[in-house]
Amino acid sequence: MAHRVTTIDALGPGVFRKLRHELGVTAFGVNAIVLPPGTEWFNHFHHRQDELYFVHAGTARFEVGGESFELGPGGAVHVETTTPRRFWNAGDDDLVLLAIGGRDGYVERDGEMVDPADVERRKRFSAGDLDMIRRRDPGRGSGS
């Protein structure tokens, strides 16, 4: 088939929604990330792939390579491989991001946590414990 169509909602509930699988994309990785208010994604980096984050809805606060900034709908940031990055929902509504990653085509999952304690948090999140992505320090990085 030359194309496939879906919606983020059609992928079901949850934070991490795998668009690549649903759409049959093989050239790069692409996922939707839906973060409820008061939640954050893990501080991580990748060994081989760059990532582009596109804000579809809501307000995202990012820390990338020591810099902090905010993006709203339509905002995007490119993060090169090995650069630590983290982001959180800085608003009162769901944050909906598209995360697109690759390097000369699709790269298998190669993310790694910056903080070793996040390895266990990520496992617990993957097992369904949403408390693992609740903001631990809501004031950190919220102003600059």
Description:
With 144 residues, the chain is mainly β. It has a single domain (9-133), classed as Jelly Rolls (Sandwich). It is built from 2 helices and 10 strands; from the N terminus they run βαβββββββββα. The strands form 3 sheets. A 5-stranded antiparallel beta sheet has the order 1-2-9-4-7, with no helix packed on it. A 3-stranded antiparallel beta sheet has the order 6-5-8, with no helix packed on it. Strands 3-10 form a two-stranded antiparallel sheet. A hairpin with a 2-residue loop joins strand 5 and strand 6 (67-71). The longest helix is centred in the last third of the chain and has 10 residues, at 117-126. The protein is globular, with a radius of gyration of 15 Å.
Topology:
Blueprint: E1 16-17, H1 19-23, E2 29-35, E3 44-46, E4 50-57, E5 60-64, E6 67-71, E7 76-79, E8 85-89, E9 95-102, E10 111-113, H2 117-126
Name given to the CATH architecture: Sandwich
Note the overall shape: globular
**Physical arrangement of strands within the biggest beta sheet:** 1-2-9-4-7
- Total number of beta strands: 10
- List unreliable stretches of 5+ residues: none
Helix proportion range: 10-25%
Name the features:
144 residues; mainly beta; Jelly Rolls; five-stranded antiparallel beta sheet; three-stranded antiparallel beta sheet; 2 helices; 35% strand; globular
